[in-house]
From TrEMBL:
InterPro entries: Glyas_Bleomycin-R_OHBP_Dase (IPR029068), Glyas_Fos-R_dOase_dom (IPR004360), Glyoxalase_1_CS (IPR018146), VOC_core (IPR037523), Xdiol_ring_cleave_dOase_1/2 (IPR000486)
GO function term, MF aspect, one: ferrous iron binding
Cofactor names: Fe(2+)
Signal peptide: none
PANTHER family per the UniProt record, alphabetical: CATECHOL-2,3-DIOXYGENASE
Keywords per UniProt: Aromatic hydrocarbons catabolism, Dioxygenase, Iron, Metal-binding, Oxidoreductase
Protein name from the UniProt record: Catechol 2,3-dioxygenase
Family: Belongs to the extradiol ring-cleavage dioxygenase family.
Positions of the VOC domain: 10-127, 170-282
Keyword Iron recorded: yes
Keyword check for Secreted: no
Length: 282
């Protein structure tokens, strides 16, 4: 049995449940620059290049999550270049009531952090070239240092155009809040098949496929000791795209061997992590 997800595995759309569909749709269009890809009753899909990055589902009867609950820490939108990211940052500053949560130079990437109107964390970032990443064995060097956001925008956009759809943007990674890192590692590495690329003691673990710095991360910064999450607004589903049926089948075998209950329709494999975060491989 193959112990790892295939190298070409990448993140698919993130589904968010919201009590105000129209408001959240406007926010993801105005700032990150996503456009409507598809629409059905109670559901709007937003993305670029015809690909869905964020799926919004109306759930007016659900309550909001407690900040200490397990669930979403942030959805991270990866831009193809510094100019696209700088333009998105400018658009974000033009949103009334926009909540800016800071910046981070992580050595492998540069990131801007925001909070959407529902309280969901959103990271907008750009990668540095892979040739600049520093590896020690199977661990990648990641830092969290500050940088001047205004200087970043001035350097990479100047007085350029901040409008338009960011062609080539993707969901680069998804970061979750969980109850403990040991259980997260057992699930996302041992059972699901990601490779661990970094860890911050008992506080956070970072995992990926194919030598990326991280496709997912799990931390306990707000949620240490959290149990299974309630049915609330916020994170509805994390999609992961696996190339080929073989990769899907190997993941099914690993999960089943570790007692994880899965729903398999032949094309997708759905299951909950130990905190009730819904994951779907396709």
């Amino acid at each position: 049995m193959n112990d790892l997800l295939p190298d070409a595995t990448h993140m698919g759309p993130v589904t968010l449940r919201t009590a105000d569909l129209a408001r959240l749709e406007r926010w993801y269009q105005a700032g990150p620059g996503l456009v409507q890809v598809a629409e059905s009753p109670g559901v709007v899909e937003l993305g670029v290049d015809g690909r869905t990055l964020v799926r919004l589902e109306a759930a007016p009867d659900l309550r909001g999550p407690n900040p200490q609950d397990a669930g979403l820490f942030h959805t991270a939108v990866l831009y193809p270049d510094h100019t696209s990211l700088a333009a998105a940052v400018v658009r974000m500053t033009q949103i009334p009531g926009m909540v800016f949560a800071g910046v981070g130079d992580h050595h492998v990437s540069q990131a801007f952090y925001f909070v959407d109107p529902d309280g969901n964390g959103v990271e907008l970032y750009v990668d540095r070239p892979r040739s600049a990443w520093q590896w020690q064995g199977d661990r990648v060097h990641m830092t969290t240092e500050g940088f001047d956001p205004s200087a970043f925008v001035a350097q990479h956009l100047g007085s350029g155009d901040a409008t338009g759809t960011p062609t080539g943007a993707t969901v680069g990674h998804v970061h979750l809040q969980v109850g403990d890192v040991t259980t997260a590692r057992q699930f996302y590495v041992d059972a699901l098949g990601f490779a661990e690329t970094a860890a911050y003691g008992a506080q956070a673990v970072f995992v990926s496929a194919g030598g990326y710095h991280h496709h997912m991360a799990m931390n306990t910064w707000n949620s240490a000791g959290a149990g299974r999450r309630a049915n609330t607004l916020g994170l509805g589903l994390v999609d992961i795209v696996v190339p080929g049926a073989d990769g899907l089948g190997a993941a099914r075998e690993r999960l089943t061997a570790r007692g994880v209950q899965t729903a398999d329709d032949g094309r997708t494999l759905s299951f909950d992590d130990p905190w009730g975060n819904r994951i779907r491989l396709s």
